[in-house]
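Q: How do we represent a protein-ligand complex in a form that can be generated token by token?
A: Start from the inputs.
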Amino acid sequence: NRSLVSIDDYTKEEILEVLARAAEFEKNPNSNILEGKVISSLFFEPSTRTRLSFETAISRMGGRIVGFSDSSSSSTSKGETLNDTIKMVSNYSDLIVMRHPIEGSARWASEVSDVPVINAGDGANQHPTQTMLDLYSIQKTQGTLENLNIFMVGDLKYGRTVHSLLMALSHFNPTFHFIAPKELEIPRAYKIFMDENNITYYEHTEFDSIINDADILYMTRVQRERFADPLEYEKVKNVYILKNNMLKDTKDNLRILHPLPRVNEIAVDVDTNPKAYYFEQALNGVYARQAIIAKALNL
Ligand code: CP
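Then emit the structure tokens for the protein with phosphoric acid mono(formamide)ester bound:
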């Protein structure tokens, strides 16, 4: 089926096709192409941007939304399984957008559902729609996706946006620099993926002095909700904080991205620096998600 569960469900050509469609939606966001369509929005985990940008995307295309943003108000709280919820909801709607805390839940849902499932984040695994807006933002600010120096900083272990983005960028000959404390380094499976695809990458634990070659600085939040032991979170929670004075010798084309929400890993004085792009990045999520929905429904 036409689900988007992992970013590698899209080929390089499909990624480029969806990005081109997103640019069309940016020029003309309002249409009726979803008229008569019902889209289910099932958020078993909190969200601001992903849920609201999907809802905006659907509204701008004339579709209807059903669903929940708090699973405690659904029959999950009475013990209904994900299997049964998805079977029901796939009979109600033309497409399911789902966020869930369990890794692999979106794949499971796509196998149970009769309609396409779009993964809006499954635990620490994947967040492919975030990747499409990240790629759109990179292409828009750099003029290309090819041959870029990409620095990813923070929680590279639990950060699902990092996992999806590194896989997608691997089509475009990147050089990666991963900056993380040992406890939060990139999982082995992604290192194997990069080795198999001959991707150049470097790992660092120091942050301050090494970002001057960056084209993209992708900051991430330490994912408190994924830590089994709160004390382990306390040890790493403030490990890297980007401050304005760290940007003075960086490249003119550098743009700072962050999937958001931010806790304190980017000081607020960076927000007015012309290299800060994270709020525009979040707006790009509407166009990217319009394009993803249109592709999933073959429109
Ligand atoms: N970037 C992102 O997924 O944000 P939300 O958790 O607010 O949806």
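The mean pLDDT is 95. The beta strands are 38-43, 64-68, 95-100, 117-122, 149-153, 175-179, 200-204, 216-219, 255-257.
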